[in-house]
Amino acid sequence: xxEGNGGSPVGTGGWSPPSxxxxxxxxxxxxxxxxxxxxxxxxxxxxxxxxxxxxSGGYRRFAWTRADSDCRAWFEEQARSRRLACExxxxxxxxxxxxxxxxxxxxxxxxxxxxxxxxxxxxxxxxVVSAFAALDELRRRGVxxxxxxxxxxxxxxEGARFGLACVGSRLTAGVxxxxxxxxxxxxxxxxxxxxxEAAGYDPDAIGADPxxxxxxxxxxxxxxxxxRALDLSGDRIxxxxxxxxxxxxxxxxxxxxxxxxxxxxxxxxxPMLPYAETVLAARxxxxxxxxxxxxxxxxxxxxxxxxxxxxxRGWLDSRAADQERLDxxxxxxxxxxxxRAAAHGVHLDVExxxxxxxxxFDHALRDELAGILGSETGIEVPVLGTGAGxxxxxxxxxxxxxxxxxxxxxxxxxxxAEYATEDDCVAGVLALAxxxxxxxxx
Length: 442
Ligand SMILES: [Zn+2]
Prior knowledge:
Layout: H1 38-47, H2 66-81, E1 85-88, E2 94-98, E3 106-112, H3 125-141, E4 149-154, H4 167-173, H5 178-182, H6 192-198, H7 210-214, E5 216-224, H8 229-233, E6 237-243, E7 246-254, E8 258-259, H9 272-289, E9 292-301, E10 307-308, E11 311-319, H10 323-343, E12 347-356, E13 359-360, H11 363-377, E14 383-386, H12 391-395, E15 401-406, H13 422-440
This protein binds zinc ion.
């Protein structure tokens, strides 16, 4: 899959920049594979306006909101138009089936349709649209499917609303209990059960679904790459090796609210100061470890321009290649935070809100994918690690799981600037179809 970066560029956040004609997939190398992107393009165009913020151009497809419902309706329509059996499981994940999943050993592909605040168009939807397009390709090829084939849209993958990622897959896999999920609350104080209910789903049903996972023989998630490894190597498609261990930690710095004009600097207990120093410490700790550490979200009380804050709450997201390095980075950040908080007379509480250990994808399945794709193209497909969490990572504890990555020329993700060329997206569809075809023979 080593090819030049010569695909037709696509507009930021989507394929149809306003005021220009939509780009069409250019012919792919190997004439037999040309022109396979039309169905993909049509699906993509339908999905594109849903939940898009006119101001930022980014997506706000949060769990159990109107935009989420619209995405789900789109999924249902795709399933219906292909005569697939569509169902929603007890945790709100959507499934479309070709063949009876009760037969077991099913091959499942898919991803998620929700987004982070002002997210890009590709993170998640690329995997779902590619799944339907790959199924169309298999039908075009006349491949007899010997195993049930499922397409899934996992609910609330990004965790944008309730602060915990992969809620749908975590519940299904039993790594998040129903009790824990029921306590999740959004910024407006709406609990997950109330949000589900408002969207027309039954929150009493949520919980582990081992029977469903037992019927899956392989899960393959296709995803836009969230870094530049493929761009740098000149490959369109990659296979995931592992997901770095990662987690979220909440740092509560509590000081004393006071007047910004009349309180002498020496008399202040300003929690913003140790917070700021902790942000810098995160960078200092992460760099030599080859890790990442980010404070991307902050809440301030009372949040007034002319008030010294009483509380600064910051969330640390940190990821590293292995557990030891991650532990060292987070311990280093916490140590610095405690020292700086003490120096400013500020009280600090640190709480780990979520954690996902390293995920090594199933080696046998990974090798199988490499074999299938290698035999189709004669080129070795690169195998890469990733710092991003995915439903595939959650499922991998229960089901043989693999991931395919599609090149992202800028590496930008979780932003409206995230994109992939149409050619690369179509290459992803064909690679996924090759994989599904190959797996259906096993
Ligand atoms: Zn994603």
